[in-house]
Design goal:
Blueprint lengths: L2 H6 L3 H4 L1 H11 L4 H5 L5 E4 L14 E16 L4 E9 L4 E7 L4 H6 L5 E11 L2 E5 L2 E4 L6 H10 L3 E4 L8 H11 L12 H6 L5 H9 L4 H32 L12 H8 L6 H14 L6 E6 L5 H14 L3 E5 L3 H15 L16 E5 L5 H13 L2 E6 L13 E7 L6 H8 L7 E6 L5 H6 L5 E5 L9 E7 L4 H16 L3 E5 L41 H10 L7 E4 L5 H12 L5 E4 L12 E6 L7 H8 L9 E7 L6 H11 L3 H12 L25 H17 L7 H10 L2 H9 L1
Parallel strand pairs: 4-6, 9-14, 9-15, 10-12, 10-13, 11-12, 13-14, 16-21, 17-19, 17-20, 18-19, 20-21
Antiparallel strand pairs: 1-8, 2-3, 2-5, 3-4, 5-6, 5-7
Helix pairs in contact: 9-10, 10-24, 10-25, 11-13, 12-13, 14-20
Length: 744
Amino acid sequence: MDRVSSFDEPLKKLLGGATAKVMAEHLDLHTVGDLLHHYPRRYEERGQLTALSDLPLEEHVTVVAQVADARIMVFNNGRGKRLEVTLTDGSGRLQLVFFGHGVHKPHKELLPGRRAMFAGKVSVFNRRTQLAHPTYQLLDAADTDEATEAVDAFAGRLLPIYPACKQLDSWRIAKAVDAVLPSAQDAVDPLPPALREGRGFAKLPEALLKIHRPQTRADIEDARARLKWDEAFVLQVALARRRYADTQSPAVARRPVPDGLLDAFDAKLPFTLTEGQEKVSGEIFADLATDHPMHRLLQGEVGSGKTLVALRAMLGVVDAGGQAAMLAPTEVLAQQHHRSVTEMMGELAEGGLLGGSELGTKVVLLTGSMGVPARRQALLDLVTGEAGIVIGTHALIEDKVRFHDLGLVVVDEQHRFGVEQRDALRSKGRQPPHLLVMTATPIPRTVAMTVFGDLETSVLDQLPAGRSPIASHVVPAKDKPHFLSRAWERVREEVENGHQAYVVCPRIGDDADEAPGKNAKNAKDGKGTKDPAPEDDGGKRPPLAVLEIADELRKGALSGLRTEVLHGRMPPDDKDDVMRRFSAGQADVLVATTVIEVGVNVPNATAMVIMDADRFGVSQLHQLRGRVGRGSAPGLCLLVSEAHEASPARARLAAVAATLDGFELSRIDLEQRREGDVLGQAQSGVRSSLRVLSVIDDEEVIAAAREEAVRIVAADPGLEHLPELRTALDALLDKEREEYLDKG
């Protein structure tokens, strides 16, 4: 068998159909290579008890522990039985529960003093952590052949605990690994020998043996160090090749002309740019002046002025004879951007119109809900070049949309778009247009080097002068209902002082599909939160809804105030009317979904109450909070929650209330949500390519791997002299991932 095919061997040939089917369906493991790269989550030592105090709720876990006591409980007048077993590690306890016919075997085997591995889903009942009907394997009794095998296999050795599932326990995965472990000798080593030897790494087959069957803790550290490097290095080579390919693609250089549209715009600004805006603008204009496409990520704090920086870039491209398109994820945001851009530009946005500046250009809006005459005119303005700037939604990428000379694509809140959508817009240029990706979600440096590793990064971390501080507080509605009453009093006080307020809810409330526990994950239309808390699924009531809360407030706590509603399923014209009235001060309170999360700018809005705040992610709360305090008056954000004081949800809210530093919150958010598919960025639909590398903790590894990758790709772009590295890239870059990188 050759080296590659042994790793490509289907598991069903070695493990049998039933086990292979479970691995494929529940763990996404299909081949020998997949299983060998399914590393243990942690290790136990015989004689060492597992800590039970920090088990994550609602997760499938494997623990090694000792039975403290076991007793049969009778209920239903003797017709029902349950076995309650208490495990201990000397400092904490965990309860196991078995019912009905499942009582007999564990009652005989799980006697006080015995140790075993237990696997099950962690839940809470009567305030006690428990595993209901866990599977288990005895480790210190020879009552069964299987137990004897377990003792023999792990006596005096480290016990690997694998990521498992309900259908397949850790110890069964360990047996499967034993069956394929000889194939580790056939592993294709992606690290060039000089790099591996220079850094003192073990060869890949040795690292795989050590990670699965370590003799010592030092073996584990050696293996993890080597395997982290593999993941970081292969990924960075893929991204370095993408950046190199970009430098080889032709593009039209776009240089602003002196005394043109950009200079006229700058002259009419009523304020000076911040130092950060000047610096980032310089980086962007330097990229635009080159003859290969710009690929730049602009990230910045809420309210740091990203839209202004992007607008100046668009005006510079128009000066140079090209057109610029801004893609926004929602109609509300597209309309808001169009309104703010035309207001900032004034007569410069009325090119060709009576009263417009002779230096000006047309700024058009294009959305799916526009009437036929307005849409036809917008399309005509784009194809003739009359419109230098277009702002729109997904409607921009339709086949009917043609440009005269598309020079710059600006993608706002890029995480809302799929790869195909961005690529479709970029393909509308005569040559590849320059690309500026914007996000208001601050991203730690290590994540930027991985998720956005093919983009150059600019950071805006300065707030413009005049922005006011925002005070944030958690409102424990269940524990202290009078706090919620006080929250509504504060909203009234803000309105009485001439200001306005937002009330945000997780769902709309007009759809039967929005049932309890079905908190929608798609925030694009305001249906729900995009990163709900893990503890939501077991909620006793559905998330609070805009329509219901608005009705309650009108009749009760905020009666007499002008209260409007806004959500993603309203007709576009109605949404725009509501935002216009709110922006003009004709409404006091706006009760909305997350449709207001980004881009909405009403300087007079000073207060925000977020209902069921624990149902939103950290970054999303930070984005929502950024809608207030945008003027000269200080902002107030109240995070209302019924979560228990000691719960992870409340800890998350406390973190948001404690800091306005978006980069710190993004790190907390990443730690709590865990690392998804960094390369595919959750858009490729396949499981994570990162198994031991942490984009949070391994900054030095990622930075060093990036340097090595750049050096190697510069010397050998096609990797002609590194066939093993090419093979590793082929394994990493399946069809979907390849498209992801190609389309950027």
